[in-house]
Amino acid sequence: MRDVMRWKNAAVLALAVVVVGCSSNTKKELPPAELPKFEREVQLKKEWSRSIGKGQGETFNMLTPAVEGDRLFAADVEGLVVALDRLSGKVLWKNDLEVPVSGAVGAGYGLVTMGTLKGEVIALDASSGEEKWRARVTSEVLSAPAVNGDVVLVQTQDDRLIAFDADTGNQRWIFENTPAVLTLRGTGSPVLTNRLAIAGLSSGKVIALDAQRGIPVWEQRVAIPQGRSELERVVDIDGGLLLSGGTLYAVSYQGRVAAMELESGRILWQREASSSVGVAQGFGNVYVSLASGTVEGIDERSASALWSNDALARRQLSAPEVFSSYVAFGDLEGYLHLISQVDGRFVGRERIDSDGLRARPLVVGDWLYAFGNGGNLVALTIK
User: Fold this and answer.
1) Closest CA to 110 of 71, 80, 142
2) Going from the N-terminus, what domains does the chain have, and what CATH number goes with each?
3) Is-above-0.85 flag for pTM?
């Protein structure tokens, strides 16, 4: 049986460049696009900033912070977990787990949860930072666990879904999936409601399970693997799922962006797209950062592109997030970009971290939190 190989997006793209280079000596990898000039329309105010240990590290982690109430929780790659007052930036507690953290922080129902490179899930008390429990899983956890007050749900790198009792950490159930032969190194965060546990898989499918028992409820294919090589057939859903009302959104690498009915999985609309970082939704539109560096605004009613901004080609954009009337996202040089939801024009820009900004911005009300690769965590508002 062939070994299952897992690659991060950059590694897959690098391999693609090698393949192209072998076939033609005249083709060279293009550099990231230069930053475009524009007339600034939006001024951002830095409310506070804090350094969170070693930040994201160099293994392409996506250690996105999380918020519960007025508390903001962030972790670095070496296992430092910090709780801050999200309005003042005051440090409320710290806990050094002394294990390498790989999955983004999850928070809810009094718990702060995260996964490790050693195949563990750790739950902390949100008020004190004290460890409540630690559980072993089958492989790395590269995304934030989801919590609904009853169970903690994690998706492992080998495409298993595992539910733990939120109070004790005892395993409730495990659902096995067969991962694709070649995948990106990463998984999206699952979505957990009171009834359903939903995840995007490396096979290009979205699956919904009964949250209490782990029994399948529905399954929907978002992307169909195509091409002769395994590289061409990579269709991971790594950017995470977005739930808005009764609609679930997903996007795959080398596949499609789709909207689905939450309860049935029925496709409402779909459109060709390639992204490993995810989507945002607002103003009746869906916004997606494509693997090429283009950002698209898609009309939900017609599934057609309202606008397309390709000025940041090859700048390794983060997942987008809706912030006020704008769409916010980061890039490989650590810039946070703001573009208009209406027509995709640039309206603002702020450099967050010279080491890059690959984690999705976190928006809570009128506040935006950006966590740079080097560990710089910044709180921003619009002046």
Assistant:
1) 71
2) 57-176 (2.40.128.630)
3) yes
